[in-house]
Amino acid sequence: MSTELERISELAKQDRTLQFTSLAHLLTVERLGEAYQKLRKGASPGVDGLSAPEYEQDLVGNLQDLHRRLREGRYRAQPVRRVYIEQDGKRRPLGIPALEDKIVQRAVVSILEAIYEQDFLPCSFGYRPGRGAQDALNEVFRAIVVGKVNYVLEVDIKGYFQNIVHEHLMAFLRQRIKDSSLLRLIGKWLRAGVLEDGRLLPVTKGASQGAVISPVLANVYLHYVLDEWMETVVKPRMRGEVHLIRYADDLITCFQHQEDAERVAGVLRKRFAKYGLELHEGKTRLITFGDLPKSVSDGRARAGRRPSTSSVLRTSVREAVMGSSRSMSGQHGSACVER
Questions:
Q1: Which of 2, 9, 127, 267 is 20–30 Å from 83 (CA)?
Q2: How far apart are CA 1 and CA 3, in angstroms?
């Protein structure tokens, strides 16, 4: 991290209420160049049709021109090109931004991370530097095997990225960022629209899955909607232990007491609805120990394989519940505790 970003991180850490008024000047040619180097060069081109090898033919000149347009307010965000991928038996939309949008977004992500990595809570694991799915899985095992956990609330948010409300997101960002230039940039990307089958579709909500900046914006949204609310409002009102573990929009909450779990399940729907989000009722449920058949455990987590799907937490719950049951009955207990 550069000296400027280190300074921002330190200020953000020292004062959680500090609002940053001057950030856009950090989008230098050098930072744009660093952002470009972090991009996956073989990625499909966006609506501009521009590939990384073509851009590199005059990389310095192109980055200098991009910097001038940013500084003079002439930079224009391009619509994302929408394609569909097969995932979990369904066709899911994926947005492919234009190359220069990727570059600027990556540079902005480095600035946002310098601030928000000081704010994000330990319960959040997805799309964060130095954290990943395996860390989330380990925390699930720690909470269930070591903590006083008897109930697990599995939560699935229906179409999370597509339903982020722009007005709420920008209001959350303004709690930390008062640089109007940087906020305008983010607003441009959110409103840029989608190009699908040759048609330009307007966008009124959501953050495009596939856009470089979407993961950190999604984390900011759930930090305020869920993580901070759970820590400061919900937990103090509970009778027993409560553990929230979130990997992006995949989350579980572990409880000691059933009444706590049922209260949170009820109020969580209202909390999410307030911010335009909806629980997927078919995938949201309360699990108690002993409810899971052994067939749900295939040993992948204990074998140490890296989780690769968005259901990492739900899979790890089943692994932990089965592992805890074995530990309680004296079977394979040491292997479970080691996880």
A1: 127
A2: 7
CA angle 209, 210, 213 (to 5 degrees): 90
Of the candidates 35, 44, 32, 22, the residue with the CA atom closest to the CA atom of residue 75: 32
The neighbour count for residue 35, using CB atoms within 10 Å, is 21
Total residue count of the chain as it appears in this document:
339
Strand partners of residue 254: 152, 243
SS3 200: strand
Q: Which residues of 302-313 are buried (b: 16+ CB within 10 A; e: fewer)?
A: beeeebeebbbb
CB-CB contact of 109 with 193 (8 Å):
no
Read off the tokens for 196.
């699908």
pLDDT digits (tens, 9 = 90+) for 268-287: 999 999 999 999 888 888 88
Output the six-digit token pair for 328: 């309680």
Write the CB contacts of 267 (distance below 8 Å, at least 6 apart in sequence). Answer: 234
What distance in Å separates the CA atoms of residue 272 and residue 291, rounded to the nearest whole number?
A: 27
Task: Give the model confidence (pLDDT) of 60-107 as tens digits.
Answer: 999 999 999 999 999 999 999 999 888 777 788 889 999 999 999 999
Tell me the C-alpha to C-alpha distance, in Å, between residue 219 and each of 31, 128, 129, 143, 223.
23, 9, 12, 22, 6
3-state DSSP percent of the chain in helix, strand and coil, to 5: 50, 15, 35
CA-closest candidate to residue 193, choices 95, 105, 100, 265:
95
